[in-house]
Design brief:
Strand content: 15-25%
Distance between the termini: 53 Å
Structural class: alpha/beta
CATH architecture of the largest domain: 3-Layer(aba) Sandwich
CATH superfamily of the largest domain: Type I PLP-dependent aspartate aminotransferase-like (Major domain)
Helix content: 25-40%
Radius of gyration: 21 Å
CATH class of the largest domain: Alpha Beta
Order of helices and strands: HEEHEHEHEHEHEHEEHHHEHEHEEHEH
Number of helices: 14
Number of strands: 14
Length: 385
Amino acid sequence: MHIDENAGFGTKAIHAGQSPDPATGAICTPIYQTSTYVQKSPGVIVGEYDYSRAANPTRTALEANLAALEGGRHGLVYSSGVAATGAVLHLLKAGDHVVLCDDVYGGTNRIFHRVFQQLGIDITLVDMTDHDATKAAMRDNTKLMWIETPTNPTLKVIDIAAMAEIAKTKNAMVAVDNTFCSPYLQNPLQHGADIVCHSLTKYLGGHSDGIGGALIVNDDEIHKNLKFIQLSEGAVPGIQECFLFLRSTKTLHVRMDRHCENAAKVAAYLEAHDKVERVIYPGLPSHPQHAIAAKQMRGFGGMVTIYLKGGLGESRKMLETVKIFALAESLGGVESLIEHPAIMTHASVPADQRAKLGIADNLVRLSVGIEDVNDLIADLETAIG
């Protein structure tokens, strides 16, 4: 179905990349559970499909849908968010230099430093809220700037347009991990990014029932190279996962509105709590980059980070006492989750780097779901004490 590029987000979410099945009229894109496709003659394929590692109609629909939601020309999906990240890094070669946002998801930090650095990729970590430091980190051989905004877990907000200007002085590609915002709240391509990365596992999937990743680009050459890597490495999602993600994007805008609404109320409650040392939420005026968030985001998201008064003991007590918030890694599902980054999602980050970033024993990260917010606040009240 052709959807006008000026259509609203909700219309694109439900219809982009998808048409009723021509064989049956089914309104949902079918699960094409097949590994291969019959050819008319050797090398003469029917339509565009010959082998499902290369392409599959269910996957094609998902890729087109995601591209439309990000305002991009091309979408590619992968078996996980880190598989998508790895595909971008495979665009580089030994001797190339990357400027990496200092506060990123632990799995991102791990794949950059423990997988690709040993293959000859040089990496510089930098606080991208410091524009002068970012400029100083750029080199003549810098080929990629990797941004995560808001960052995980300290929720720094990076000015994408300003970073893109800096990157372009060295003709470096700009990749933005947009997982925390989803395409509903932020579109990095509009701010100068070349590549947008998502963990589909999070808000785009939204139901904690599938693992996947995605890249969205406008540049035809970058897309061609990423498509070759996708085909050659084969880190593609299963077709059932593609179907589930297509199911989920249809309600993304509705879910994100509720995530934002609930998170804002939870953040305000926690900021007023006498046992909470500090609350980090882009929607609070106290957030250091609140103005940047208001400029480049359409809402402030569902993630809230807090520093409790006391040490690990107080954090552990809270994490073990909550009833509605589930103690689990990941984020972005309809159910509320809570976790301890220093022990869980960011345990692979070296201790000295965690300390520098402020990932302390009293830091707790909340993924605020779409339950009744009064129940969520009551749960936190009981857990914090």
